[in-house]
Amino acid sequence: MPILPLHLASASPRRREILTSLGLQFTYSGEDLDEQAQPGETAAELVVRLASDKAMAALRSRPESLVLGADTVVVLGGEVFGKPADQDEAVAMLAALSGRTHEVMTGVVLVSREHRLSALSCSQVRFRDISQAEAEAYWRTGEPQDKAGGYAVQGLAAVFIAELRGSYSGVMGLPVFETAAMLRSAGVEVLNQ
Q: Site (Important for substrate specificity): which residue positions (predicted)?
């Protein structure tokens, strides 16, 4: 069976970097969807559903492709933190996360006309105490503006992280272990450089 071309249903530079580092060739596009939780939906259900919705939207325009979708949220005490709308929301998110441990969930879905595989990555991140001045200075860097929870683990926010348990790449937005396993199940060779 011929291998279908791979398409990433995300415009995230981090997700593209991760796939490229695995030696994969792929196309990509952002999928603009309503990312609101449905009534009664858990954070885990939300990220897997959104990853699936993104993958399925891309598959409709690329029916002869293998499509990878992903979505990431930050969860603290049952509250889901998506991307901050503005500086006030970003600073409030960082204040809530300051000195506490939160969970980062990334749902990943791989679809084609013949395949539908999904995975969930859950990691725990503990922040040191963050002052309001630090949070405001971090916002001014521009980095947190399109990031779940208002921070990027691979960027300047690394100075806030006291501990990370789980998948670093999952916190970035695409868990390598789970993604590679799904791709191999669909016949894609990973690290074929």
A: 14, 72, 154
Cβ–Cβ < 8 Å for 101, 124: yes
Q: What are the boundaries of each domain within the chain?
A: 6-185
Looking at residue 1, what is its pLDDT?
A: 43
Number of residues assigned to the chain: 193
pLDDT of residue 104: 97
SS3 155: coil
Distances (CA, A) of 10 to 41, 52, 85, 101, 173: 23, 12, 19, 28, 10
| Two structure tokens written together for 94 | 């960082």
Closest by CA to 174, choosing from 76, 81, 115, 105, is: 105
Nearest to 163 by CA among 101, 73, 94, 98: 101
**For residue 186, which of 69, 66, 71 has the smallest C-alpha distance?**
66
What number does CATH give the domain 6-185?
Answer: 3.90.950.10
List the catalytic residues.
71
What is the CA angle 14-18-19, rounded to 5? 120
pTM beyond 0.90: the answer is yes
